[in-house]
Structure formats: C-alpha cells, structure tokens
Amino acid sequence: MNRTPLKRSHLLRMALSSLEQRDPGQGESFLVKAIKIALVVSLYWLVSVSMVFLNKYLLGSPDLKLDAPLFVTFYQCSTTVLICLLLNLLLTLCPWVLDVPPLRFDLKVSREILPLSVVFIGMISFNNLCLKYVGVAFYNVGRSLTTVFNVLLSYFVLKQTTSWKAILCCGVILGGFLLGIDQEGVEGSLSWTGVIFGVLASLCVSLNAIYTKKVLPAVDGSIWRLTFYNNVNACVLFIPLIAIFGELKVLYYFDKLNSVHFWGMMTLGGVLGFAIGYVTGFQIKFTSPLTHNISGTAKACAQTVLAVSYYNEVKTALWWTSNMMVLGGSSAYTWVKGIEMKKAQEESQTRDHEKTEAGV
Q1: For the packed helices 164-187 and 317-359, what is the interaxial angle rounded to 10 degrees?
Q2: Structural contact between residues 351 and 318, judged by C-beta atoms closer than 8 angstroms
Q3: How is it placed in the membrane, per its record (predicted)?
Q4: What is the dihedral angle through the alpha carbons of 262, 263, 265, 268, rounded to the nearest 10 degrees?
C-alpha cells in the first residue's frame, strides 16, 4: 500500500517516531550522517515499492486468481494488530526498549474511535481496489487527488482559505490526472472502476486526517494506541463486509489456501504495511518533512518507470507528461505550503516579540 498515499503509514510513522529522542546527527561526522541518510532513504524506497508490487500480485495476479480484496486488506490489518501486540509484549518484558505507552483495550474508547475506523476502512479498501483494477504504472496518477481534496475539505469543513499559488499547484495535479485518464483511454488500458476507487481513496485519505485530529483525545493523544484501536475495529468491521460481498465463497473455492507460499506473501504484505510507517518516521527524522516529500515524489517516479519496464509496457509522451504534472504539482504544493508555514511562524514569533517588548 504506497504512498501511498496512505494514511495508515502516517499513523504508524507518528507512533514509532519516538523510538529515538536523541538527535540522530549529534556528534557524528558528515560521512556517517550521509551514510545513515542514504541507508534510511534506500530502505524507505525498498519497503514502499515492494509493498505496492506485492499488493498488486495479491490483488490482481493472473497466477493467484484471488478475487477477494477485502480479505487481503483484512489480513493486513490483522497482521498490524498482531505486531502491535507483540511489541506491547516486548514493552512489558523490556520497558526500556520502546518509548511508547502500554496497550490496553477499552470498549468505550473503541466506540469513540469507530467513526475514524469507518473512514480508515474506506481508505485502505479503496486504495487496494484501485491497485487491483489499474496498473502499477498508473497507480500514482489514479490516486493523486488527495492534495486537491485536502484543499476542498479545508475550505468547506474547516473554513480555511488557500493561497493562489497552492491552488495553482492543485490545478496542475488535476490537469495531470485528467490527462492521465485520457492517455490510459487512448491506450485501451483505462479502468473507470479503478479510477473511481482511486478518487474515493484520495477522498478518504483527506477525511482520515480530519477524523484523526477529532478522535485523538479519546486515546490521550497517543497515535500508537490509536493505530491499535483503529486496526482492531477494522478487523471486526471487515468480517461482515467479507461475507456481504461474497468473498467467503471465493475463499472456499480458492485452491491455494493450503499454500505456504500464498500465506507467506500475505504475511509479508502485512509486515510491509506496518513497516512503511516505521521507515517513513525514520526518513523524516534523519532528513526533514520537506526532504521526505521530495523523496516520496522521486520514489513514485522511479516506481512508475520500474513498473513500465517490469510489465513491458510502451507509453506515449503525453502519458509521461501526465505523470510529471502530477508529481511536479505535488512537489510544488509541498514547497509552497512549507514556505507559507515558515512565514506564518516567523510572523507569529515577531508578534510575540513585539508584545513582550511592549509589556516591558
């Protein structure tokens, strides 16, 4: 599950980013810091790209022939819960290893988290369904409207305005998205089902951020505990959905339920889904949020090129242009918002300084 995106990786990176409170670059030579940064960025790329290709195999491989995307997503959530419990056990045995609060299940808290869990289920399900119906090469374009929805929801829900520069960046992203759809149609590989799921996934990613802030007080602001409750709720809610959409019948007739390879791939997908948050947190810690976004954009570009090469696809110049518009618009939006946030912070500090001097 990429970029992803999303999203679950955002929750997990915040949950585990407290593993090291010390400045990772303190007292180290430039060479050591450069090597660490290179290793962390490389690990992020490896985990993220591997997760997307593995999920594509699980969701749409002609060799596997498993038409049960909800079950695949349910299993990955179950794996996250299991890893959380194992880490909690490690915390009990060796409390000095992890700097996170212990996990405990409270039904009242679980109910308070439920609205977020519904959005969370939509986010990860639509994300996987998009990947099921579109190629890995088009995947980044298909679910590229998260930034656009962020701006729209900020205005209509939070009543926050956006600068014209940021809106212009969103326009570039939207243009790349529409051009990508057009070029997929020209090549005869367009799946409107996949596109719709991609748009819904983008919307749910934006809603997930809003609901996360809303329910955080229920878990005392602990993203670690929120991740646990969210995935436990998701596992429970997925069970009736799997039955309603007929996936139990699909699983009953699936000929690889006894395959060690199949369950190994499923478990690896769950582990990678959990690990993406871990490596994302370390990439941000050893670089910066802006560098992380730039790395994510470069990774998406490399992933697209790798997918085109791996699946022996031939793409037109306009198709590549659509990808560059999406990636370029997203990078420009991050840069613009970074400048605006820095300017707002400086203005706030200036006002505080002036108030202090006036008080004196």
Answers
A1: 160
A2: no
A3: Multi-pass membrane protein
A4: 180
Residue type, 287: T
CA distances from 335 to 68, 328, 330, 340, 341 (A): 39, 11, 9, 9, 10
Question: At residue 34, what is the residue type?
Answer: A
20: tokens are: 């090291």
Whole-prediction pTM: 0.83
Residue carrying structure tokens 């749409």: 60
56 contacts 4 by C-beta, under 8 angstroms: no
CA distances to 3, 97, 275, 309 from 268, in Å: 17, 24, 10, 24
Distances (CA, A) of 289 to 29, 116, 303: 22, 25, 21
The half-sphere exposure of 147 on its side-chain side, counting CA atoms within 13 A, is: 31
pLDDT one-digit tens code per residue, 258-287:
999 999 999 999 999 888 877 876 777 787
Distance CA 154, CA 172 (A): 19
d(CA 146, CA 114): 22
Check: CB of residue 216 under 8 Å from CB of residue 157. Answer: no
Q: What Å distances lie between residue 349 and 1, 161, 337, CA to CA? A: 39, 22, 18
Residue 37: which residues within 8 A CB-CB, separation 6 or more? 286, 287
The DSSP call for residue 134 is: S
Q: How far apart are CA 322 and CA 176, in angstroms?
A: 4
Tell me the pLDDT of the chain averaged across its residues.
85
The whole-angstrom separation of Cα 285 and Cα 296 is 15
